[in-house]
Design goal:
By secondary structure, this protein is mainly α. The chain is 62% helix and 5% strand. α2 packs parallel to α5 and α4 packs antiparallel against α5.
Length: 152
């Protein structure tokens, strides 16, 4: 039993546009759209901030030699840094505001710092409060996403 190459190519052709951006074409204004090797690609503006934010949090804590006493590993960072991204997403989803990609990237960076700090706080310091914060944000985002999808 071998791989059906034509089916694989068809699947890749259909999913390629979502490789760096999970947005539908109607939401591509939430993406940067550079041309790379003659092809336009779409990169989610918020995600472009999230990954460097995670890396910055991990590096800042690891380079300082641990989690204990590190300001980026504190619960307030985990609790507050994701909030601007949630607020921006809520405003641009439920109002006529289109928002700005620079704001999405900046709030994504803060979100990433919160993610990275929470991950290290949980794994290295065993701070189970991080799970409660994550669950709270997950419930809030899930409710808002459900409402936004119901409005379509």
């Amino acid at each position: 039993m071998g791989i059906d190459r034509s089916e694989l190519r068809a699947g890749l052709a259909r999913t390629w546009p979502y490789l760096l951006s999970h947005h539908l074409p109607s939401e591509r204004h939430r993406c940067y759209a550079p041309v790379v090797f003659g092809r336009r690609i779409h990169v989610c503006a918020r995600c472009l901030g999230i990954y460097p934010g995670i890396l910055a949090a991990l590096l800042s804590i690891v380079l300082e030699g641990g989690v204990a006493g590190q300001p980026l590993a504190s619960l307030p960072v985990v609790l507050l840094f994701p909030l601007p991204a949630l607020i921006d997403w809520t405003l641009t989803t439920f109002t006529d505001r289109r928002g700005y990609n620079a704001v999405r990237t900046a709030t994504g960076f803060l979100l990433g710092v919160g993610y990275g700090s929470g991950l290290l706080g949980l794994l290295l310091a065993g701070d189970l409060r991080v799970i409660a914060v994550g669950a709270g944000y997950g419930v809030a985002a899930g409710v808002l996403l459900s409402v936004s999808l119901a409005d379509r």
